[in-house]
Amino acid sequence: MDEQKGTEEEARHTGSTAPPAFTAAVEALRTTRLRPQIEVEATRAPQRLAPYAYALEAAVVDGDDDLADGRLVLLHDPAGHDAWRGTFRLVTLVRAELEPEMAADPLLPEVCWSWLTGALQARGLAYGEPSGTVTRASSHYFGGLSARPSASQIEIRASWTPREGLGGVPDTTAHLASWCDLLAQVAGLPPATPGDASIVTLPQRRGPQSR
């Protein structure tokens, strides 16, 4: 009910009823079943990026610890968008902590970007105009905080245009599943199915972040 209310609020923001294609795409997001380690909930969507928007937050959970977290936003502009080359756009942020040694790998940004594109391709998804950044940051503690171990974090920000199917509706179920595959991979979870055994994941970080 909260998710549906959020969608209706976005529709009221534009002063019109949400288009059927957007409603169908959101409903698919709301009803997708995911692996049990990933907790997903609706959150407030940005209101200035497109006439219609819907957002989800997710965390990869191990007991009371979050191994990785992220946000996925579905944007829709019925008039189309030149930069998107379509009427829908998916925007994401994925974050996880990792070992400092892994963060020092010069190939890490390229590898993380390939995880995103590989997750989409593994589910046979067609998409266009991908763009994004991979950022790694390290924190070192001094003085009164010197007892804390150094910490490193990887952050993936990206967007892409999903191919629209029947009725102009993209397969948001599959796109959400591929995004969760990326989250699980960054978190260091083992592959969900035997068919994913070729996927290489990040080693699980030294200490999961408490929730």
Please characterize this protein's 3D structure.
- It comes from Streptomyces ambofaciens.
- Residues 1-13 have a biased composition (Basic and acidic residues).
- This is DUF3000 domain-containing protein.
- Residues 1-21 are annotated as: Disordered.
- This protein is of the alpha+beta class and 211 residues long.
- The protein has one domain (20-187).
- Helix content is 28%, strand content 35%.
- It contains five helices and seven strands; from the N terminus they run ααββββααββαβ.
- It has helices at 2-14, 20-31, 100-103, 108-122, 172-187, and strands at 38-43, 52-62, 65-81, 86-98, 127-139, 151-162, 209-210.
- Strands 1, 2, 3, 4, 5, 6 and 7 form a seven-stranded antiparallel sheet that branches.
- Helix 4 (108-122) packs antiparallel against helix 5 (172-187).
- The protein is elongated and about 55 Å long.
- The protein starts with a helix and ends with a strand.
- Mean pLDDT is 81; it is low at 1-15 and 194-211.
